Amino acid sequence: xSEVTLSRKEAGSQFEVPAGAVVxxxxxxxxxxxxxxxxxxxxxxxxxxxxxxxxxxxxxxGGGVRELRLLPKRPGVHRxxxxxxxxxxxxxxxxxxxxxxxxxxT
Length: 106
What we know:
The protein is mainly beta. It has a single domain, classed as Immunoglobulin-like, CATH 2.60.40.2020. The chain has strands spanning 3-7, 14-18, 22-29, 35-40, 45-54, 64-72, 76-86, 95-104. The strands form two sheets. The chain has a four-stranded mixed beta sheet, with no helix packed on it. A four-stranded mixed beta sheet has the order 2-8-7-4, with no helix packed on it. Strand 7 (76-86) and strand 8 form a beta hairpin.
């Protein structure tokens, strides 16, 4: 199974994705501040894993990366939107990003 890896710096663009490929989003995060990424991938994209990976060089309270693995269910254009927010302040994201996925093939 092939993978397409995208990072925060690539947000705002559309990406060609072969059918059956897993899309890996890697977004910088520091949950010790209370902020975590929430991602809306729509009903045509499954989130198959969602994990926080702490940087090996950072100590307690240091940052890391939110890694989400997405699997589009069908060909077409899909929109994935992320918001960095605190759970108790859902209407106040401090950052957001959007990725377009153009899935082609069978």
